[in-house]
Amino acid sequence: MTADEAEPGTVRPGGRTARVRAAVLRAAGDVLAERGFAHMDLADIAQRAGVGKTTVYRRWGTVTALMTDLLTEMVESSLPRTHTGSLLDDLTAHARLVYTTLTDPRQGPLFKAVIAAATYDERTAAALRRFYDARITEWAPCVREAAARGEVPEDTDPREVIRAVSAPLYYRLLASGDPIDEATADRAAKAAIAAARAGIFSPESD
Q1: Which Gene3D superfamilies does the record associate with it (predicted)?
Q2: CATH code, 164
């Protein structure tokens, strides 16, 4: 597939066009956090970004394509996982990264809006799944390394452990409305490790 044939918003620009992409994605994230998916408009985003409307329409074409690129950029800019040599320390770092993101004045509302949009827009849902798959893939090796050290059973499912760490934090963000703090993040990491050590995330426990 050539650049001309690619789906709008999926071609990674370089050079000076990277600055345009960064400005547009920043503006899109601001609108999404402030007003939600339903109020996103490419012309408004172009104006906020200080770029020509035709440039935005030509590069992305639709709000959904822009959303897809925004999620891609969020993966690209995410902090890499830690390598502490301790599963507790690794998962605590992961939990605190999720906590920091979800409580950020901009990122928290942005994630809420993206998740809400994913409930009725399939392309946004697919982009969101790719985002979380990338994050889980980034952190899963710390569980495999812990299994090799004997900290958890060898057949522990790494991806399930990582999901178990972040799930309680997202529940508070999206459902209960209870506050999210470092203590909550640390408790989520400890609970995931306790479950892993008990074999909850091993195949035979299904």
Answers
A1: Homeodomain-like, Tetracycline Repressor, domain 2
A2: 1.10.357.10
